[in-house]
Amino acid sequence: MELEKIKELLDKEPEDAVDEILADVEKRYGEIPYITNFMKDMPEIFISRMIYENSVMREFKRMDPKTVELISIAVASALRCEHCLKTHVRVAKRLGVSKEEIFDSVLIASSVSTAAVLAEGTRSVDNAFADEEQGIASSANCSICNINSELPEED
User: What are 60-95's pLDDT values in tens digits?
Assistant: First the structure.
């Protein structure tokens, strides 16, 4: 989203800015997605989120709208976000994306997701056995969320 457009939105009354953004979303998507509709009554959150989303998803010129939707479909598939997936598939269809192109993006997401699971899983197995072989006690805490697994230590 261009800076001038952002300034214009921020200078408006919150309700007017929300209405303008909603009209733009409906024009672009052919519908107002659930999350967008849910947040519309919270202008302080809604406006800043939509400015960011529009800047990332719609306003840059390096990718065409079909490519953006195919990426969105792939990510929604990988994250298993059913609602996002359905929305982006509908939008992609409106843009003329074929069923085969949509399926290809799902296949790519599946391949990358599977690789991520394998990469994390095999590293964990290797680390657990490497620590054992080297006589190092492995940490019981998850490195991502720091939650203790509370599994008993092995003898």
Answer: 678 899 999 999 999 999 999 999 999 999 999 999
